Amino acid sequence: MFFLLFGLRTRDELVDNRVMTCEMCGWNAPQARLLRTTKFTLFFVPLFPVKPRKQLLRCGHCLGLRAAAPAF
Ligand SMILES: [Zn+2]
Question: For the whole model, what pTM was predicted?
């Protein structure tokens, strides 16, 4: 019997931290810039990306995620 295990894995990589005003909660808090990558996996081994990489900002106060501006 043969099983084919495949799926997707999303990982967030921390790029840097900056203290900025959050657009969601309005607090002046550290904003973590993340690089989100989603890859196709075969037998739990990530092989190739299936979505374009996306930059996100995560607020240190409210933990809200939002898309980062390109000129961040
Ligand atoms: Zn916030």
Answer: 0.74
Rounded to the nearest angstrom, the distance between the alpha carbon of 63 and the centre of ligand 1 is: 6
- Asked whether residue 72 is assigned to any structural domain, the reply reads no
13 residue type, one letter: E
Q: How many angstroms does the Cα of residue 18 sit away from the middle of ligand 1?
A: 13
- Domain limits at 63? 6-67
In the reported structure, the alpha carbon of residue 3 is separated from the centroid of ligand 1 by a whole-number distance in angstroms of 44
Residue 53 falls inside a structural domain: yes
Give the total residue count for the chain: 72
How many domains, the chain?
1
Q: Note the pLDDT tens digit of each residue in 13-43.
A: 999 999 999 999 999 999 999 999 999 999 9
